[in-house]
Amino acid sequence: MTSEMKAVGLTRYLPVTEAEAFLDVTLPKPVPQGRDILVEVKAVAVNPVDTKVRAPKDQVEASPRVLGWDASGVVAAVGPDVTLFRPGDAVYYAGDITRPGSNQQFHLVDERIVGTRPQSLSFAEAAALPLTTITAYEAMFDRLRIDRDGASAGQTILMIGGAGGVGSIAIQLAKLAGLVVIASASRPETVDWVRQLGADHTVDHRGDMVAQTRALGFHHVDHIGIFNDMRHWDAAVELIRPQGGIVSIDDTHLPMPMAGMKTKAASLHWEFMFARAMHQTPDMIEQHRLLDWVAAQIDAGRIRTTVTDVLRPIDAANLRRAHAAIEAGTAKGKIVIEGF
């Protein structure tokens, strides 16, 4: 068996229009230690975090840096302390932002943040899910304390940026939990997309969301997920009910006045799905458990994949195409790249 593998890396942080923004390279094949599994990568998905990490800056890598986090594949080998998986198992995962990424043929990942691939999905369909699924699940069920199993049924949630990767899975998880979902979308095709996924109502985040939400008959909402950016902070503060909660996946340099939050005794939560792996938290294995739970919901037909575009193969040219689409801000659902 060869000790080398194909990979797509970068040495300079260039605009995606530059031919050398990504490079097709050959790297040593890694060897699993401890609780790591070595995955033969079959498909990867591209997320906004990929474009943020690759954003142009004056920095040069001495050896090619491999990005990519969402992936699905087959376990090729396991470290000596692995108990959850065996070689041959089909898996899906979102990886660890502090480690080399999945845009390579063989990838090391800690077993505690890996799930068993849904049996009813292809590798491409599965690769679209982990990062956004973990983000949406943690945002609603861990941060906002919405009950996954239905005790919160009937409560309302406004999802700002409902047609993006996180919104596309969050709508489905919220409906599974029995919530009334108001999703924001700004174009006819994205309005149609969020309705297909189960949104009960839609509003346009390019307009007056407060007026639109109230015109639907909701003076306040119980929960709000800011799944695009924090320009909508003031509207969120106005719409959240007293003692309700707002969760955001976007950091910001914009002003965030807090007086309205204080007088409502409302809570603000940040969701960062890499936090558990980055800080090696004692509950890291919760990501393994939630991915397995979601896989069971998918195989039962309760949740659908959010992939909308599949490119082949995994190479520098297709990674540039995918990054360009994400940066344009027009993507709905998820872009996946399949096969080396």
TrEMBL record:
Cited CDD domains: AL_MDR
Keywords assigned: Cytoplasm, Metal-binding, NADP, Oxidoreductase, RNA-binding, Zinc
Pfam families (alphabetical): ADH_N (PF08240), ADH_zinc_N_2 (PF13602)
PROSITE patterns: QOR_ZETA_CRYSTAL
Gene3D superfamilies tied to this protein: Medium-chain alcohol dehydrogenases, catalytic domain, NAD(P)-binding Rossmann-like Domain
Predominant location: cytoplasm
Protein's recorded name: Zinc-type alcohol dehydrogenase-like protein
Organism: Cereibacter johrii
